[in-house]
Amino acid sequence: MATLADAGLTFTSLPHPAPTGADQRAAILANPGFGTNFSDHMVVIEWTDGQGWHDAVIGPRQPIALDPAASVLHYAQEIFEGLKAYKQADGSIALFRPEANAARFNRSAERLAMPELPEALFVESIERLVQADRDWIPEAEGASLYLRPFMIATEAFLGVRPAKQYKFIVIASPAGNYFKSGAPAVSIWVSDYTRAAPGGTGAAKCGGNYAASLVPQGEAIARGHDQVVFLDAAEHKWIEELGGMNLYFVFDDGTLLTPELTGTILPGITRDSLLTLAREEGLTVTEGRYSIDQWREDAQSGRLVETFACGTAAVVTPVGKVSGRDGEFNIGSGGPGQLTQKLKSRLVAIQRGQEADTHGWIRKIG
Ligand SMILES: *Cc1c(COP(=O)(O)O)cnc(C)c1O
């Protein structure tokens, strides 16, 4: 990894004039919800064509001024990441695989014609923010400080070309356990809409993908489901992923299958970590294609015993029921399956420092 000095950057720390009081913070941390409460600080780093990354600042979280012609507002040149800081069993603070987020951020940047950020700078930005807001990490089981690094095109220019000015920003939001009690199985709707087409931006973590998924997700909710599952754009046959989570299928012979990364699926870090953990357990995991018809048939015959979705926000979530234009089917008992539970507990135990980190996934924050 390039060092910060290579990028010629030092951080300026701006004092917060009026940080949140301890009582108010405690009230927020007692019931943080998801994505509605924010910590006191933020990181902002500027990029200008010819100059590169400059003016790295950690200071009070506050609104940003944008010219109304800023190209992000018109052509959606925006990418983001999502990761969590956890309180470990021994009271220390840890990030889970932030280098993987840094690398994926740069792959997204490349696809959206945005400048790459040195990985060390990405990770240092997150570490500094977590250090500044270390009192904002909720301690309840399953709770964490959710970190949202993102980059926007800020140049005031209405022509269509890559912008010549960007801002990289990191904000933090205390997050409760995604599910209040345990992990209930979710019900999902097979969408007629598609999320990503071959050659498109499906493998990039960009806001535009999410804008396009809101109507399909709304349709799923309106029909009484929790989530939407997208099929491939070309044949409308192969299972890809949910709006923001990857999928795994578990068969009665103990093997697993997850859709292969063909460029239309977001390469989840949770997906990747579970691939490693499952193989370590001696399980056979295939990355391949799986059709909606086969899924239905296997669920009905009992060959398929579990399905789960995975991602940073909810970690591992069992899928209990699937509905679409061609009817409805249940998976296994409709509740969380054995393997789903086992893989989830192992991953959570590593993230929480309750199980040895033999893969170098944990990055402690001093
Ligand atoms: C972020 C995301 C995921 C999950 O990725 P993780 O790195 O595991 O959090 C899955 N699908 C989409 C579309 C995503 O944006």
From TrEMBL:
Record's protein name: Branched-chain-amino-acid aminotransferase
One function term, GO molecular function aspect: L-valine-2-oxoglutarate transaminase activity
Reaction it catalyzes: L-isoleucine + 2-oxoglutarate = (S)-3-methyl-2-oxopentanoate + L-glutamate; L-valine + 2-oxoglutarate = 3-methyl-2-oxobutanoate + L-glutamate; L-leucine + 2-oxoglutarate = 4-methyl-2-oxopentanoate + L-glutamate
Pfam families assigned: Aminotran_4 (PF01063)
UniProt KW Transferase keyword: yes
Organism from which the protein derives: Novosphingobium pentaromativorans US6-1
Pathways per UniProt: Amino-acid biosynthesis; L-leucine biosynthesis; L-leucine from 3-methyl-2-oxobutanoate: step 4/4; Amino-acid biosynthesis; L-valine biosynthesis; L-valine from pyruvate: step 4/4; Amino-acid biosynthesis; L-isoleucine biosynthesis; L-isoleucine from 2-oxobutanoate: step 4/4
Domain of life: Bacteria
